[in-house]
Amino acid sequence: MTQITEAPKKSGGIRDLGKMFGSGSGAKQLGILGALVVIIIIFQVWTGGLTLTPGNLIALVSQYSYILILAIGMVMVIIAGHIDLSVGSVAAFSGIVVASLMQNFNVPWPVAIVLGLVVGALIGAWQGFWVAYVGVPAFIVTLAGMLIFRGGNQFIGNANSVAVPKEFQFIGAGYLPEVGPDTGYNNLTLLLGLVVIVAIVWREFSARRTQAEMGSDMAPLWVSLVKIAGLVIVTGYATYLFSSGRVGTSFPISGIILGVLVLLYSFVTRNTIFGRHIYAVGGNSHAAELSGVNSRRVNFFVMMNMSVLASLAGMIFVARSTASGPQDGLNWELDAIAAVFIGGAAVAGGVGTVTGSIIGGLVMAVLNNGLQLVGVPSDRVQIIKGLVLLAAVAIDVWNKSQGRPSITGFLTRKRTGGALTTETPPVPRVQDDTNALEPTVGASETNRPSSVTPNN
Amino acid sequence: MSSSPTILEMRSITKEFPGVKALSNVSLTVRAGEIHAICGENGAGKSTLMKVLSGVYPFGTYEGDIVFQGSEVRFRDIRSSEQTGIVIIHQELALIPELSITENIFLGNEPGRGGVIDWKDAKKRAIELLARVGLKDDPDSLIKNIGVGKQQLVEIAKALNKSVKLLILDEPTAALNENDSQHLLDLIRGLKSKGIASIMISHKLNEIEQVADSITIIRDGRSIETLNVKEDGVNEDRIIRGMVGRDLESRFPEHTPKIGEVFFEVRNWTVQHPLISDRLVCKDESLFVRRGEIVGIAGLMGAGRTELAMSIFGRSYGTYVSGTIIKDGKEIVLKNAGDAIDHGLAYVSEDRKVLGLNLLDDIKRSTVSAKLKKISKRDVVDEVKEYEISDAYRKSLRIKTPTVNEGVGKLSGGNQQKVVLAKWMFTDPDLLILDEPTRGIDVGAKFEIYGIIQKLADEGKGVIVISSELPELLGISDRIYTVFEGAITNDIPAAEADPETLMKSMTSAKKKVLS
C-alpha cells in the first residue's frame, strides 16, 4: 500500500530538454514548434535565402495575421467541442458594414471599428443562442451562418467593392512609425524586440521560482539557460530583420494586434475560471455540469467570442486591401481550422492550446509563402497543404492510439524508449465508452442516467 | 431427479480479466424445456457467465467446456452461438429505434437473394412471428413508437426467427410495468410448453419463484448451489440466503460514529422520468440525515437510487415534480449542480469515467475543478495553490502517482476514485452523496475509501452511501434506507439489519414488509 515505486523518472542529459516547455500540453507544442523550424530552414535553403528577408517576413505577418486571429477563436470553439464554419462570411459581413458606414455615412474610423466589433458580437450571440440554448449542432448553425452572412455581405455592398479611408487602412497595412534618431533601423521595432527579450528572461525565471515553490520536478538550470539563449537569438534575429526593412516598413500593426491577442487569450484559456470551464465542457460536458459548470453559458460565449474575432480579422483584411469586396474571407474557416488541428487540438474537443494553434497557423503560412516563392503553382500548393494537414493529424491520432502524447512522442520516441511514457496504457477516450449511460438527447432540460433509447 | 434430458451443460467455467477473477469454476446445467433462473447480487458474475455462453467472450478467452445438445461447442462470436440456437436478449435492447418492427426482426438476417431484400416475404413472416409472441401491432411501426414492453416482445420475435432452442433473458422485466411483465412471463411459459428452454436473470425474486423450474445461485464468481423449485420448496427467503451469506469480518475499518442532530431533510420528493412523462422515478420519497451519520441506500439496479441522488443534487436527473429540501432548518431550492455545490452538497457519481472526471485533464486540475472560485482571485486561478492543495490531497488520500501533473486517465480505478473524492472534499461539503463509491475497485483501495468516508462523517458531515453490495452497506452505514421501484420501503438502523431483511424490502413494496 505504501510503495509508490513507479519506474523512477529518468532525468539528466538530453531528456531534460523535454522539460524545456514544461510537461503536458507544453511538451506537446515542442514537436510542432520543431516542425515549424525545420520547414523554415528547408525553405530558407530552397529559396536561396529569400524566406528570411525583411521584406518577405513583413509581408508574411501582414498577410497571415488575420488567419492567426481566427485561429485563436477557433481553437477555443474546437476545445469546447464545436466548429465554426462561418468565420470567413462573418469577417466579410463585418468588413462591408464597417466600410459602408465610413463611406456612406461618414462615420469616423474609430467609431466604425467599435461598431464592427459590436456587429461581430451580435452575430456571435445569434449563433451562440442556437448552439448553446437550442442545441442545434454548431456545424449546422455556422453552415447556415456561412450562407447568411456571405449573402448579407453581397446584399449590403450590392456585390461590389466599397473602399475604405486612408486612416482606417492603418490597422491592416500600417507599420510601427519611424521615431527618434536615425539608426538605420526602425527604432520602435528594436524597442519592441528588446521588450520581448526582457519578458522572455523574466518569465523563465519567474516560472522557475513558481516551480521551486511548488517543489515540483524542475529542469536543471542549464536547460533554462539554453532555452533563454535560443529564444533570445531567434527574437533578436527577427527584430533585426523586421527593423531593417525597406524605409517606411517595419513590424506591422496587425502583427502587434495579433501579439496582444495571443498573450491575452493564452492567459484566459490557461489561467482563468472561464478558460478552465472551456476545457471541462469539451473534455466531458456531463462531468462538467455535475461539477457546477454552466455549460450553456460557456458554449454561448465561446461562439460569440469567435464571431467578434472574425469581425476584427475582417476589418484588418479590409484595411490591408483598402476596400471591402464580395469575395473577402473566402475559405478562411478552412485555414483557421487547419491551423488549430495542426497545432494539436482534438476533433472530439477538450484538447488544444492557443500557442499551439498559432504555431500550426505559422506552419501553414510559411509553407504557403515558401512554395509561392519557389514558384510552385497554386494548384499544387493546395495539394501540398492538404497533405500536410492530413499527415499532421494522422501522426497525432496514431500517437494517441499508441498511448503517446502527440507529435512530441513521435519525435522523441527513439530517445526516450523505455522511459515512463511508453509504459502507460492508452488514455481511454470518453467518447469511445460504449458503456456510456447517456442517451445524448441534445440540450433537453435534464436527463442523466439510465438509457431511455435502448439500442445497444 | 427430473426425467427430461440435459440441453446445456457448462462445466468449470473460469474467466479472468486483468487483475480480477470474474468467474471461478462455475457450472450450470439446464434441462430441455425448463425455465432456469440465475440469481446473484450485482457483480456476482451472472452477466459474465451469459456472455461466455453466448460467445461475446469467444472460445479461448475462458477455461472450461460448454456442451450443448450433447456435443461440445466453441463459439467464436454471437453469430455462431445464434446459429446453434442460443439467443441472448440483453437488458439494454438491441433494437434500432428509427427502423420498423419488420426491419428490426430481420436485421442481420434479411430474407432475399443476392443482397436484395424480399420485403413482401419479410413482412409475411414478421406477422407470423408477432402472432406467436402475441403482438398485434403493424409490422411497419417504428420501434421508437411502441412501448418498452412491446419492444421486449419484438426482441423475442427476433429470437424466434433464428429458430431459438435456448433463450437467455437478462433482466427482461427490469424496465417493464406490472402488466407488461406478467404478459412477458406468460409468453416465456408458453415458449416452454413448445420446448424452448430459457435462462432468466432477474432481481425480482417473486417473478423467479413464480416461473422458474430451477435456480442456480452465483456468488462472488462461484456457483453456490442449484435448487429445484418444486422439489426443494424454494421461496424468496431461501434464494436470498443463498445470494448473500458471506462473512463481513475485517473488511471495514473500526469506527465509532459520532452522530449529532438532523440537519438535512428531503420531503415528499417526486421526480418524473426525463423523457417518459407518465413514469415517476421517485415517488413521494422522504429521508433525513444527521450530522456525522453515514446513511446507506439499498436498492436493486433500476430501483431509482441514482435517480433519487442526482435529482436531489441540483435536479441533475429527471423533471422535478414536487418535494422540498431542508438544510439546517431552512428550505433550500437547488436548480442546478452549481446551486447544490454552493449549498454544501457533493455528489460522487456512480460512473466516474462518464460523469465524474474529465479523463483528458491532469490530477491537479481535476482536484480543484468543482470549486475553482476557492483558489481564484478575480476569476484568475492561482496555480501555486492549485498544486499545493492537490498535492496535499495526494498525500492524505494516498493517491498513487509520481506527481499531480499526471493525467487522471492513466490512474487505476481506485486512484481515480480517490481523485474524485478529493475533488468533492475540496468543495467543503456538509453532505456527501456517494453513488457506488467502491465499484470496480480492488479490496485494498476499498478499505482505504471506507476509512475516508468514516473520517468525513467524524468531521460532522452527513454522508449518503448508495451501494449494490449489501455487505458494504451493512459494514459502513449507521442507518439504511431501502428503495424499491422509486419508493422508500424501509428505514432500518444498520445494527438491526441483516441481508435477508434488506433484500426483502428491496424486492417488494412497502405494505408487504410492514404488515
Number of domains of chain B: 3
Taking Cα atoms only, what radius of gyration of chain B do you get, to the nearest Å?
A: 25 Å
- Let me know the number of strands of chain A: 2
The first-level CATH class name of chain A: Mainly Alpha
Question: Which structural class fits the helix and strand makeup of chain A?
Answer: mainly alpha
Mean pLDDT of chain A: 81
Distance between the termini of chain B: 38 Å
Given as residue ranges, the uncertain stretches of chain B (5+ residues, pLDDT < 50) are 511-515
CA-based shape of chain B: globular
CATH superfamily (homologous) name of the largest domain in chain B? P-loop containing nucleotide triphosphate hydrolases
**Backbone shape of chain A:** globular
Strand content of chain A: under 5%
Strand segment count of chain B: 24
- What does the largest sheet of chain B look like? 6 strands, mixed
| Largest interface: chains, residues each | A-B, 60 and 73 residues
Model regions low in confidence, pLDDT < 50 over at least 5 residues of chain A: 1-12, 405-456
Percent strand of chain B equals 25-35%
